[in-house]
Amino acid sequence: NPAARALHRMASCTTQRQALLSAVAALPTADDGSWSVPAPILKATSTSEADAKRHVLSFSAWAQGAVRQLPEASEHEATDFSDYYKIVMSRVQLVYAKATQPAGELRFPACRFQTQLRRRPQVVKDGAARELGVFDSGAGPEMVGSYEGSSAAFRAALQAVGERRFRAATLRRLIAARGPPAASIEESLAPVNEEWVRLLSGSRLFELLDDGVGFSASGGVQVRVELQGGQAVVLAQGPWFRVTFAETPILQCMAQFMTESVQTEGDHGAARWCRDALMNFAVAAHSVQERVHAPGLGSVSFFAGRRAPHADFHLLQHLYLQQLWPAFATSSLFAGRVLPRCRLVGTSAHEGPMALMALEAPLDARLPLSSVLWTVLFWACTGNRTVLPDAFGSATFKHMLLELGLLPDVAMARQDSGRLARFAAIFPETRRMASEIEEFADIEEALRCGYRYFGAGGFFGEKRRGLAEFSIAAKITTALCPAADGTLRVGHAGKLGDFSEGSWADFSEEKHGGTARAKFIVPAEVDRDEMFARLLGYARAGDALHDAATAASAGGGGAAPGTLLVRADAEAL
Question: Which of 25, 178, 264, 520 has its CA 20 to 30 A from that of 350?
């Protein structure tokens, strides 16, 4: 019942706050030889022991007093644990709905997010590292926990998330909190704001359906948990401009649930987790300040919140970075709501091209032209001409823009998968951002490749070092929209990303198939192999053209012949 869930939330928040207070109190205050920084943190941040200790002590001196100034935030709102790009994209999605549906019909297009575990976290139990099985049905004794044992608690946590409400004052405050890079976005979207706020205000984030109950076109957002391949999968469906807000709070709920399970079931409790996270954060934050910001080599933004396993730690990170980094910017709507002086940044995400792949399928008969349609819609609505091109292969996307005369309009290209050097070669004349930052070595490599902008989240302490950490992902996999004859048209989508080994033209099913498919998410009713082959064909075409152009240029022969598009493609677009 609601009262019991409220008490559970309060108890969880109190436990989290107490663990953080204990961990901060236990941080070292002097280099007296009694402590060390764990080796995995030194490796991940490319930092010497002496420098790491210096960074920890600087943070510790600040945190001893600052941690008790953290605001109370036990009652969450629907926008918490989403990123700024969500309030941007939701308004663009509303424009799309109003442009494509009959007047007053905002139940469609409806989209479905699929959220699932891609890698289990390790937990140290009885001195040995084992995998956590809280989302695995029928987990054996080699795992710690099972879905049968955790499903009731997980559903209760998920239901509490769904009960969060949108508040008009918060939505307006978050719009006003935009950082300078987002000024043109807010100016462009201003005519949509009041209707958008009115439609969301007062509504809850989602309704958690009982087991076995199917989705309905209610106009609200509904969530189901079902078992697929022996593992719990969370599905969220509703009007696109509404359901977009369910994606990342569900990710955060799963992240927190697994982290608390690791702490409860393992040998190391919550205070130990917090202490390691604090050290990891301190060294990473100072490393970026001293080796990137201070020498003027680039700008790093804090992209965190969607998988934040500890709300108070998340806020403490923001408070410290506000005074450590001279031009601090964050994507976190939670921090933007709770803390003063947070400046929000962000643009778009893969859900845009993935949704239009499902909604505008006729465009993609040969190549993923629907991703170009999303791009020009986003540009037109926001005035922001950043691209996230890797959904179906960055080279394919780049060549489509080039052939359509749109490439010169790109203001920045964001790298989110594949190899940094290859992406730089695909977009050699464009400002670039690297946002797949796992270790400081990734920033160093990106700097060598000419990147000057970076976005990172888990790198700053949320991910444990030295043990396998969980990997969870959410993707739009299905979209629904009424057809001209009144029937419901259902479309599906997938995301390939750029190839970790270089060019998709060199992909071998025998050598690379298992690794490449590990992150590939499709709905259960779709032929996974057929979808993979289709997206692979898209990506191969662009990579082959890029490779040929590179070879021709190296040989002094000029640009390689051939194009991807034909006139019919442009006319369809």
Answer: 178
Q: Which residue reads 């990891």 in tokens? A: 280
pLDDT at residue 79, as a whole number = 98
**3-state SS class at 361:** helix
Q: Walk along the chain (573 residues) in steps of 10 and give the mean pLDDT of each run.
A: 50 83 97 97 98 98 94 91 97 97 93 96 96 96 96 97 98 97 96 98 98 94 97 98 98 96 94 96 98 98 88 96 95 96 94 98 96 98 97 98 97 97 98 96 98 96 93 96 91 96 96 89 94 97 96 76 90 93
Q: How many residues does the chain have?
A: 573
Tokens for 262, please give them: 């690791």
pLDDT (0 to 100) of residue 307: 82
Chain center to CA of 312: 20
**Predicted model pTM:** 0.95
Report how far residue 56's alpha carbon sits from residue 85's, in angstroms, rounded to the nearest whole number: 32
Phi, psi of 235 (to 5 degrees): -115, 130
Tell me which residue has tokens 């070292």: 28
Task: Please enumerate in sequence order all residues whose Cβ is within 8 A of that of 254, keeping only pairs 6 or more positions apart, or say none.
Answer: 115, 117, 135, 234, 472
Helices and strands: H and E segment counts in the chain = 20, 14
DSSP-assigned states of every residue in 17-40 = HHHHHHHHHTS-SS--SS----HH
DSSP 370-423: HHHHHHHHHHHHHS--EE--GGG-HHHHHHHHHHTT-GGG--EEEE-SS-HHHH
Q: Of 401, 407, 430, give the one whose Cα is nearest residue 563.
A: 401
**Residues 6+ positions from 105 with CB-CB distance below 8 Å:** none
Q: Which amino acid is at 181?
A: P
Pairwise CA distance, residues 493 & 465, whole Å: 34
> pLDDT value at position 10?
46
User: What is the distance between the alpha carbons of residues 210 and 394, in angstroms, rounded to a whole number?
Assistant: 41
- Alpha carbon dihedral 348, 350, 355, 356, in 10-degree steps, equals 80
Q: How far is it, in rounded angstroms, from Cα 118 to Cα 471?
A: 5
Alpha carbon 462 to its chain centroid, in Å, reads: 14
Question: Which pair of structure tokens corresponds to residue 249?
Answer: 């709070």
Cα–Cα distance measured from residue 215 to residue 221, given in angstroms and rounded to the nearest whole number: 9
Cis peptide before 109 (omega within 30 of 0): yes
CA–CA distance, 270 with 260 (Å, rounded to integer) = 7
Look up tokens 């993979």; give the residue: 532
The answer to whether the CB of 115 falls within 8 A of the CB of 247 is yes
> Which residues on adjacent β-strands are paired with residue 471?
119
